[in-house]
Each structure stands twice: as C-alpha cells, then as structure tokens.
Fold this sequence. Notes:
Layout: H1 2-15, H2 17-37, E1 49-54, H3 56-62, H4 69-81, E2 86-89, H5 99-112, E3 115-124, H6 138-146, E4 152-153, E5 162-168, H7 171-174, E6 179-182, E7 195-197, E8 199-202, E9 205-208, H8 210-218, E10 226-229, E11 233-239, E12 248-253, E13 259-261, E14 273-275, H9 276-281, H10 286-296, E15 300-305, E16 313-316, E17 319-323, H11 324-337, E18 342-343, H12 346-366, H13 369-394, E19 396-397, H14 401-432, H15 439-446, E20 457-468, H16 471-475, H17 480-500, E21 504-509, E22 512-517, H18 526-550, E23 558-573, E24 578-583, H19 585-595, E25 601-605, H20 606-611, E26 616-624, E27 633-641, E28 647-648, E29 658-672, E30 675-676, E31 681-688, E32 692-697, E33 706-711, E34 722-729, E35 739-747, H21 750-763
Parallel strand pairs: 1-14, 1-15, 2-3, 2-15, 3-6, 4-10, 18-19, 23-25
Antiparallel strand pairs: 3-5, 7-13, 8-9, 10-11, 11-12, 16-17, 20-22, 20-23, 21-22, 23-24, 25-27, 26-27, 27-28, 29-30, 29-31, 29-33, 31-32, 32-35, 33-34, 34-35
Helix pairs in contact: 1-2, 1-14, 4-5, 8-11, 12-13, 12-14, 13-14, 17-18
Amino acid sequence: MIAGAYLAAHLCFWLLPNLFETWDAKxxxxxxxxxxxxxxxxxxxxxxxxxxxxxDTSLKRxxxxxxxxSHFARVIQNLAKMNVSAQMYDFIFAARSNQVExxxxxxxxxxAGNVYFGMAFNLERKGGQRSxxxxxxxxxxxxxxxxxxxxxxxxxxDDLYKGIKPLITFPELASVxxxxxxxxxxxxxxxxxxxIPLLVRFEEAFYPGFAFRGICDYxxxxxxxxxxxxxxxxxxxxxxxxxxxxxHNIVIPIDRHGNMLINFIGPWERMTHYDFADLFYASDDRDxxxxxxxxxxxxxxxxxxxxxxxSDLGPVPTDANFLSSGLHANIMHTILRESFLRELSxxxxxxxxxxLLIILFALSLRxxxxxxxxGTIGLAASYLAIVCGGFFYGNLIFPIFRPLMMxxxxxxxxxxxxxxxxxxxxxxxxxxxxxxxxxxxxEELLGSPEGLKMSGETRQVTFLVSDxxxxxxxxxxxxxxxxINILNNYFERMMEIIARYRGTVDELQGxxxxxxxxxxxxxxxxxxxxxxxxIEMQNEMLGVNRxxxxxxxxxxxxxxxxxxxxxVVGNIGSEKRxxxxxxxSPINTTYRIEANTIGRQILISSAxxxxxxxxxxxxDTMEVCFKGIDQAVTLHxxxxxxxxxxxxxxxxxxxxxxGLNAPLAMICFVVEGKTVSDRGIPGRLTGLSPLxxxxxxxxxxxxxxxxxxxxxxxxxxxxxxxxxxxxxxxxPTTTSSHVSASLRFTSLPEDTKRFLDKTFRLMVG
Length: 765
C-alpha cells in the first residue's frame, strides 16, 4: 500500500507533468508573494543595482515621441561622469541609424568603457526540434568568435541550451562596448519567469546572459575563472567587489539545462528607480550632477523602457506584469547577495518522500483508523511547515504536491485495506486463530489468502531440525531459572534468523527446533533459504556463547540436519485441539540426520543437495547407516552457500590433537536415542584437543555413534560424565585387538573441562 501510494503519485506526475509541476510552482509563488509583503521575511535589497526608466514622463520631458541615439549618447556620457560601475542597456541596437547619431553613440560608449548592450539567440534544448539556420551575417559571426567565453566545463554539457540565429548589436557599436549578453528568457510551462540560463552554447563556444556578463565583470571574474558543472553549479572563482582586497568563490546552483532560480526580492517598486530625463538633463545643472554622482557612484545602472503598451512584460512569482529588465536586475541581485534558491535533488526528494511514508507506516501500525487519519493530517501540516521554513529561512524549495498526494493515496489505501482486512480477519480469527500453537504460522496465514487453504495437501517441503548438543545432561546440573534464561536467549536469537529467512517454526521440543520451508506458503527458493538460515544460525552461536561466557555459563554447540521431501501438510488434530503440521517419512529422516551431527555442523540429505548443488560449498561427504534402513545414506557437510543468499560458516581454528604422556583410563557407554547402554566398554583417552579427544577402545563402536564417557582412576572422585560423538575410526591392525577413534565432545561439563585442561597442561610432552 505504501509502495502503491508512492507509485501512484509518481505516475500522476509522469502522466501530467505540466499540470502537477505547475501546481507545485504556483504554491511556491504564494510563498514569494507572502515574503515580499512581510516586513519580517522580506529579503534585504542591495541598492548597488539601480534602475533608470524610460517612461512616458521621460519622453514628455524630452519633448520627443521616441529616443534617438544622441539621447543615449548623452546619458552614457553623464553616467560615466557620475563614476558608475556599469551601464546595462536592455536593448539590442541591431542596425545603424544615421551616421551623425551613430558616431556620437559609438564615441560615448567608447569613452565610458563600461557600457553593455544586448543580443539574442533562439534557444534550443537537446532533443528539441531543430530550426533551420538562416544565412548568417559574417560581421556578426566574426564578432561572436572574437568574444566567446572559454569557460571550464566539468561534465556533460549536451543538456545546456544551444543558441541559434544570433542577433547582436551592430558590430561597430558592440566592439567599443564592454560586452554583450543575450537577453533571452525561458519561461516555465505555465508562462511564468522563474529561472534563467546563465550561459548558452553557440557553435561549441559559450556566451553569457546579459545579467551574468555584467555581474561577472563587476566581481572581477574573467571567463577562465568560471567553472560549469552541468546539473550542479556554476562557480565564480575568486570573486570580489570593487575595492575588496581578497576574493572568494561564489557557487551558483543550476539545473541540468544551466538554469538558475531567480530569488525575487519583491515587486517592481521594491528597487530604486531614476528617470531617464533626470540623467539626460543632469549635465545642464552642476548641483544636480554632483548630487547624482554622490548617489550613483559605484552603482550598476540598468536602463530600460517602461512605456505604456510595452510588450517586454511577463509574469513572475511576485508580479503578474514584470519588465524583463527587472528580471535581469534580480538575477544580478541574487548572485551579488549569494542568496541562491536551491531545489532538492532527485535523491533528496526520494529520501524526503521515503521519510514521510515511513512515518505514515509507523502511524498505521500504532493507531486506529480514526487517529491514524488525524495523524496523517498532522503529518501533512508538519511537512508544509517544513516547506515554509525551508523557503523562508534556508532558501530551499521542497516539492509540495507529490508528497501530499502520496500521503493522500497512502491514507486512502490503508484505510480501505484495514476495513477489508479487519472484516476478513474477524471471521478468520473466530474459526482458526486459537487452533495453532505456532504464532509464526498464524501470522503468515493471516497475511496471505493462501492461508485459508488449510484442509490438507501434498507438498514438497524442506525441513530444518536443530538441537543443542548435550543440553539434556547440562540441564540436570543448573538451576531451573538459568536453564530458562539460556533457552530464552538461544530461542530469541534463532527465531529472529528463522523469521528473516521466512521459515515457519512448527515445534519447539526442549532445546530442539523444527522449521518448515515451503509450508504453509511455498516459494521457488525454499531450499536455498533453509540452508542459508542454518548457516546463519550456526554463526549466531558465537553470539550465544559470548552471552554465556559473560554470565559464567558453559558454552553451547548446536547441530542442524536438513532434508527435503514430499509430505502431507494441513490441520491435524481434533475439534478441541488442532495444529498445523506435516506427516511423512522426510520429517523422521531429518531428525535422524540431525542426530548424526556434531557441534557447529550442518548435514543435509542427498535430496536437498540435488536441488541446489550448484550453489553449495561442501566440506565433506559421508555415508551413514540409519536404523531400519539397509542401505547407507549419503550426507553432505555444508560450509556455505552462494547466490542470492550467499553466506559462509565462520572459520574455526583447525583441530589439533596433542598426545598425553600418560593415557587416562575411561569407560564408555553407547547411547541410542535417549537410552544409555548398560554395558560399558573399557578404553583409554590418549590425546586431547579443545573440541575432542583421541581414544583407544577394547571393543569396536559404530561410526557417528554417541558415547557417554566416565573417566576412572583420576584421583578425583566425582567428575561429571562426558558426552561425545565418534567422528572417525582408524582401521584395526592385525597386531592389536584395540580400536582407535576420534571423538568430538557434545557435552563437556565445567568440572570435567577444568580437569582435562589441567591434565593437558601437565602431561603434554
């Protein structure tokens, strides 16, 4: 359901991107509007950037219907005398006018040395429809080739905008200007101007935007100090304002098309404005000239038309009709103040969505449907508060509608699912819940429709049987509460692993566990999971024994047997007492296999081995005779498994037997199941290792048989008995009737262990 909500929300955005992404953008626009109207959140305005407006009033005062180039020439000269840092003219003077006016214009521009004009491209993106390239003016192309920017590009720039059909200020004027920058704007799908490409490519060279060109020069950043990382940032290296002695890097976040988000400071009126006519007539009045010099010295001047009927208008987040010169001013202001807006990256958005869904999932587990719904509303409100806080305090732009859509979808899915599930489970629990001893089985059945098929069926199941070696004898020597604590710690660790591998615990018998893989629900990897689970269980015994040592308790060892076969599974019992179980000889075989294991060993049958033989790492293969079966059974000692569930038994130190100078006399009794033979077999313990012993017996015993051993003539009257399994038998020699064998201890009480350790230290030669 949670994943479905995630996919549904993403599908909506994928199918209707313009609709939902526009809703997101419109919501952020409301934050811009609120911020610009709030005295508390309103961003500071850097009045380094000043507007000079050509308005209807300007034309009236200049007594003309339009401005000729002599008007511009005089204003350029006056601004130069006022010692402004840059004069930015939001115009493209594409063609000559008349010789006299053009000459005055060119001379004034050359004399000022800080005048910028506009140019334009048609902007295209990768994969877009390519326009026909028109016949190009060689002078225009020649100027562009001379003024290209050699910026450093770190990454793939194919997605950056590409310019075609250049239109520039005529070359004679452009060549004496400080530079040209393109005036093109790129609106979002809803027609609102929110971002701007700072650089475009033209014939594999780069050219700056109008505002970007001006601000780079103002900050003394030459093209070779510009580093472009498409989709990440544009870095202005060693940027410094006029008069500053040291610079620093300015990192501008951009998207993969090279767009920077514009951090609008407010409506048009928020910025400082002067009238063009005031600057034109300033040279006629010395006092006015001095006053304006004091006010404008060191400023960046943005000159543009704001005439009635001007078409150079467009919507921005803070204003429905905003002049393009205001956009360029806000771009420069954003870079100058380094108040960059940052959108969350794709991975960050996914992480945010995942966090919301995890919280929602936790709410669904903890609360009823009513409180869950209220909790979801609170979660949505909290997220909106984070969105607002991120925008107002961190200039971060979070997605809004997609996370909220996910919360809505998830809430609907969960509430509907709960209703259906609760109705179904109410009936199911009435009829079956109390009939199962195994909680794991019940939980699996409740979560799956297949759980209702309980009447019985033949199914191939992989069985895992585990048992602690020698725990029965150990339990007679420890207090009851310690036995319970040991078993609880052991079972808790084992249950966690079994649950992780989706095994069904059918029975806990003393210290033994019977686990099904393939019932009541089956999967193609049942056998793989069973073997991997067994390896993890054996590895976890290291943790069990660490806990044992901390409590000064004896260490434990476990054997595991695994078998695969067809059995009948289903409800077994009577009307009053029923359990889910299995019937068939493979279960008995599994118990017999486990009985032949020693500590830290996993033995599997040939049936299990054949199913996943290509994935298994086997350390030994043996032939074992089971009681009641004429032919020997092949068992495989598992070391690890490869593939999807790759895991390996932890390496143990190799077993090394040390001979005793004086063998220890002993008597052993063969153990059959839970029955200990009455007839003792004399023998001698001739060698020891940390895990077992070498013995010489007066009579032969079967390989893999279990022995109860009593040490005699030790000088210690009450040593506890040892339990061990015969792991190998040396062939008898013709000169001796004695049998030599290697044993692995399955139960070694602490008093006997201390005695053997002492004997080992004193008697090893």
